[in-house]
Design a protein that fits this description.
Elements (H helix, E strand, L loop, with lengths): L1 H23 L7 H7 L1 H7 L3 H15 L9 H7 L1 H7 L4 H15 L9 H7 L1 H7 L4 H15 L5
Length: 155
């Protein structure tokens, strides 16, 4: 019986780690080419190899507060969301990133100096019509998938 609970506990822990890994590699949180472009020291070593860049992001980039996508900059997020920095501290980048992924995106919080989801929806009425005027996650996904490459206004 003891061994059974031990195995169940291990499965739960392992599942939680997999779930954690999934959000860290979600495109609104991490875009490999953007990460390489924003971090030339990393690009010099890892090039544009997706797996290596993701490993760097998960291993040390997030802990260092590096920019990871055109819609999310963890240092900017903490600086512009005082309640989050008060709750997690000014350097707890992983918890701040997790907060943005779970809560901040839904609320349309400021997350990057070059991207404001609320302004993106106002300046791109076709996107607002398609995803919904207050669907911030939908707008973020649109920008990451299309708007960024199209050079759409986001600030």
């Amino acid at each position: 019986m003891k061994m059974r609970w031990y195995l169940i506990t291990l499965i739960i822990i392992f599942s939680a780690q997999i779930a954690m890994a999934d959000w860290l590699s979600e495109p609104s949180v991490f875009m490999p080419a953007y990460y390489a472009d924003q971090n030339p020291d990393v690009e010099k070593i890892d090039g544009y190899d997706h797996a290596k860049l993701l490993a760097h992001w998960k291993g040390s980039g997030l802990k260092e507060g590096r920019r990871s996508s055109p819609v999310f900059d963890v240092k900017y997020y903490l600086k512009n969301n005082q309640d989050v920095s008060k709750q997690f501290g000014n350097k707890n980048y992983k918890e701040a990133a997790h907060h943005w992924y779970n809560t901040g995106r839904k609320e349309g919080r400021p997350s990057h100096p070059d991207f404001n989801v609320r302004i993106y929806l106002k300046k791109n009425p076709d996107v607002a019509k398609t995803v919904g005027a207050h669907n911030y996650i939908g707008a973020i996904h649109h920008y990451v998938a299309n708007g960024y490459r199209e050079g759409r206004t986001a600030k």
